[in-house]
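## Example pair
The file below holds two records. Each record gives the amino-acid sequence first, followed by its structure token line.
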Amino acid sequence: MASMTTNREEAGIKMFECNPNEEEVSKKFDEDGFVCISALFPGRVVQELLGSYERSFQECFRALHKSGRIPFPHSHLVEEGGGDVSYPLGVGVKHGYREIVMRSPGRYEVTYGLSASKKPFDGAVADAKVEHIVRALFKGCDYYLSSLSVVTATPGCPQQAWHADGGHVDLSQHQPCHCLNVFLPLVDLTPQLGPTQVRPGTHHHTRNLAPMMLAAKARKTLRPPLTPILNAGDALVFDYRVLHRGLPNVTANSRPILVMAFAKKWFTDILNFPRRSMLHAHHDQSSDQSTEE
């Protein structure tokens, strides 16, 4: 696991207040591809979100098992004696459902039971502080909630590969952000719990990744990864195009992060979840094509 410091200032991570100056936060976001917001939601709200999600997470696996889609009704199974870990789903969109995808071994993104129109998630999505930040980062452009999910890193899950959540809409030149994630930890993060690591500035490089990364390295402008160690209720807001990864969760506890993905009105994300639903009858999974592995 990559070395890191838990001191945000030493790590070069600026924490903005929950009602930041629009020009300042927008400039930082454009430069780095991400910003961190302190205390976006109070503890009471976070606990409501966590409690509701934990029930949905458990129910999701029970429902999958009841319908015969997975071999056991849990997110993971550890062999006796603390041996190998088994997971009930395969990795990637082609093995998942509209309600749940295992992004990497033991790391699930879940929409099951989450509704932007029902408590407690409706309040989070419509929160004035969230709206203030998103509108500033989109420079006042109209936007909508593209997806609402929770990413859970289960105990023992390994490190993810570096990846971006989506591509560029223009490969000839860099364009402003068209889609972003608001990551809200529902528990206090630690270096051991599998926090999200970000590569600052790479939302520019992913337009043509290999040559642009090499060029940045040659010019000595390629910046080292940063790992925000956030408290529950803080937020990591990042451009879909920036490189990031989840670090290993080496604890006995899960690490749930609420994800609110916002996009400009004209953009539709078709990559991150399959069309098929676990709530519908079985059908041939090969009919659902996806570019994600």
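Second record, same layout:
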Amino acid sequence: MAAVSGLLGLKKSVGFEEHEWGSAKVLKDLDLKKLSRTQLRNHLEARNCEAKGGKKQMTQVLEDSLEEERLRAIAHTQAIESEFQMNRALEERGSVYAVGTGSSGQLGQGDTEPREVFTVIMKTRDLGVSLVSVGYDMVLAVTEDKEVYTWGGMGVGPTGIAVSAEESKADFLKIKSEAEFKNDGEADKFMEPRVIPVLQGEETIEVGIGASHAVSVTAGGDCFVWGQNTVGQLGLGNFERNDTPEILPGIQNNLPVVHIAVGENHNLAIVKSVEQDVQRVYTWGHVADGRLGVGTRERIGAPKDKKEFFHAPTLIDELVYEYALEVACGPSHCMVRTKNAIFSWGHGGGGRLGHGDQNDRYKPAVIEALQDMVCLGISCGTWHSAAIIMVAPLNACGEVWTWGSGYHGQLGQGVSNRSLSPGRVKEISDWHIYAKSISCGSHHNAMVDHSGELWTWGSNTNNCLGHSIEEREVSYTPVPGHCGGFGALVDRIGRGMARSVACGKEYTIVATYPYEGPTEAIAYELNEEAALRKEEEKLQAAQERHDQETKDRAGERSRRRGNIAVTDESREETKKGSTESILDKNMGTQKH
């Protein structure tokens, strides 16, 4: 047999058998002392070891080599486990998860691939993200420390970071393959979360994204704006673009902004006056379709090409006597929740305003179908809207009502694909599930229920719902489905309960609380206990079946014995009757 030299595990044929020379997997089952000199040499050379000396020396070299490999494997395993434990600790402190379309880096994974299941965004681990907000293909996130992070949009949207659109897009277009992508230091811009430096230390509490601009609000009531400004959507009194956040000039004597909502190219802001005990609604941006709610189609005195653009915050007079609690914007329609009612206005196509028709509204109008109900939350999608309606005696969660166009199942109202007035999502109510928050995407919805569980329904393009659906002929479902894995161990790592959820176009982003469930060891014990209980229940059920069968057989035997006794008794009665009949007959003959 020729000497074997080369790589570890080199295979060599001997007759009809094939041996893997030098393999620890093979050698562990062999008695090395019984190997021939030729076999020892082949194994040693395959392991790149010196094959000299006698058999005893060669055997010792082979043993030492195997022991060194074993120790290296242990060290490698320990290093991997140590790294895993460190990563697990980070993720379990609260993270952000993404699923669905990732073509513009909106999933924060460092690439543009879609994800079929909720996948952790590595750079959000331990950030304590408390709020997520999404645009078409871009995400903003606010942390507990009130910092703002951004990712997605190929870096050409309102990132808030001073990188030119041309530079960022050119970098993105360099990507030709995954290998090139990983080796290109510039190409990963905005494919993963990056902090917005200008907003550091500003104590941001809320953010919103439009098609090409963004808005944020601070704890002190300041409002920052950035991005494109072609239609005055920044509200700065001009039409100049701002790549980095700039504070919006004071609204009504510098009153604080407490809540904002951002549409495609318009905005709503709730401004608070403590002295007057009111919260009023201001708006600015593009007035098309009546989306600003100011009752007019153009700005008086403006140049002809700027008449539809309101480039400074404007009070919505129709709501001046209402105490506004929450505002919401779709691309071309709006809603506001006040202490007394829910109002909507803007584009009415598909019935998204909930007024029983498809007419546009240029002023806020009360949604009459919800007039006598207590609303806890609102959300606007592209062609549909949703509200959470309180159900007594609960006061912090309620039923989900939807309206508008639902050709992708986003209404959750069975086969209905359009509802001009609000209607209940029947399954959620029938299952006694109550919503705490709701987010409408372009064609799907996400809801966090009273126990922190996540539910989604509507379009499932690129698996953006985060769970499988029963439908096979279409890629959508009107039936709310549960997204498992939150508040549980997934691949040995604990995921917290859903804290904030936002739906974009064909993708979903979820921020979680820190994980508070059982540790891996406890979970293993619980699983073992559950398995034992299941086995005990199985044995108990089998014993009960056996006892019942024994009882049934005993009863059957008893019934049979009873039947035999009755038969014998019947024979005696028959025999006795026959004897008496014969005696009677004889006595009658004697009388005659």
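Notes on the second record: The chain has two domains: 24-88, 95-158+189-512. Confidence is low (pLDDT under 50) at residues 1-18, 174-179, 181-187.
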